[in-house]
Design goal:
By secondary structure, the protein is an alpha/beta fold. The chain has 8 helices and 6 strands, in the order H-E-H-H-E-H-E-H-E-H-E-H-E-H. Strand 5, helix 7 and strand 6 form a beta-alpha-beta unit.
Length: about 240
C-alpha cells in the first residue's frame, strides 16, 4: 500500500507559533544555486525548469528581504576537481560511481551526469545571475559532497558572525539541504528552511519527504511570507 505522511500539522503549527527569528543573529545559507542545477541550457544535474524558475524568483525576494534586515547571505557552491581524464573528486564515491557505471541517472525527468557535474572552471559552477553575490555577501566555493559544512569553513564563518539561526535554501531539498540541516542541528543552530526557495532534481516525492522530515524532526519549514512576518515581529 502507498505510504502516506503522518499528520503532524498541529505540532508543526505550535512550533511555528513558538518560533522567533532575530535578524541580528541569523544568516542565509544559499546552497548550490548554480547553473549546473538551475540553468536548463547547460545544467548537468537539472532541476525541472518550472521549479528552477520558482526557486530563483523566490530567492530574489528573500535576498531583498535579508538585505533590508541586514542578514548576511552566504553562497555555498559545489566544485569538483578533474584529477585525470578518468578521475574526478566525485568518482571515488562508491554510490556515485555505481550510478555512472550502470548508466543510470539521478534525475527522473531527464538525463544527468555525476562525473561531469560542476567541474572547477566550468560554466556549471557559476551562480545564477538572478541571485548572484552582491557586495557584503560571502562565497564558499569548495563544497565537495552533500553537506555545506563538510570540508568547508562555513562553521568558522558562522561563529565569527555570531550567528545562531540558519535560513537554508537551494538545491537539492532531499540531499544537500537536508544534510546541511542535520549538520546544523547537530551543531545546535536553529534550522529554518524556506519552502518557496528549495527544489529537488530527484522528484517531487523526495522534495516533500525532506520538508516533512525537517519540520517533524529537526527544524522549521516556513513560507517566504511566514518568514517575513517573523522578521516583522522581531522589531516590535
Amino acid at each position: 500500500m502507498p505510504v502516506r505522511f503522518v499528520d503532524r500539522s498541529l505540532m508543526i503549527a505550535k512550533l511555528k507559533e513558538h518560533l522567533t527569528v532575530d535578524p541580528k543573529t541569523t544568516a542565509i545559507i544559499a546552497i548550490d544555486m548554480h547553473r549546473g542545477h538551475l540553468d536548463p541550457n547547460v545544467a548537468t544535474m537539472p532541476v525541472p525548469a518550472d521549479e528552477s524558475r520558482r526557486v530563483l524568483e523566490s530567492a530574489k525576494k528573500l535576498f531583498t528581504l535579508a538585505r533590508k534586515y541586514g542578514i548576511p547571505i552566504i553562497h555555498v557552491i559545489l566544485q569538483i576537481r578533474q584529477i585525470s581524464e578518468q578521475l574526478t573528486e566525485a568518482s571515488i564515491n562508491p554510490f556515485w560511481s555505481a550510478v555512472e557505471t550502470v548508466r543510470e541517472t539521478l534525475t527522473p525527468h531527464k538525463p544527468s551526469t555525476i562525473f561531469k557535474h560542476n567541474i572547477v572552471g566550468s560554466v556549471q559552477t557559476e551562480i545564477m545571475p538572478e541571485v548572484a553575490p552582491q557586495k557584503g555577501d560571502y562565497v564558499i566555493d569548495n563544497k565537495k559532497r552533500l553537506s555545506a559544512f563538510y570540508g568547508t569553513d562555513l562553521e568558522i564563518l558562522l561563529r565569527t558572525l555570531n550567528v545562531d539561526t540558519l535560513i537554508i535554501i537551494g538545491v537539492n531539498t532531499n540531499t544537500c539541504i537536508l544534510c546541511t540541516a542535520f549538520e546544523a542541528f547537530n551543531r545546535d543552530f536553529k534550522v529554518i528552511i524556506i519552502s518557496d526557495c528549495v527544489a529537488s532534481m530527484y522528484g517531487n516525492d523526495l522534495h516533500e519527504f525532506a520538508l516533512q522530515n525537517i519540520s517533524r524532526c529537526i527544524g522549521w519549514v516556513l513560507s517566504l511570507s511566514e518568514l517575513e512576518n517573523k522578521l516583522g515581529e522581531s522589531l516590535k
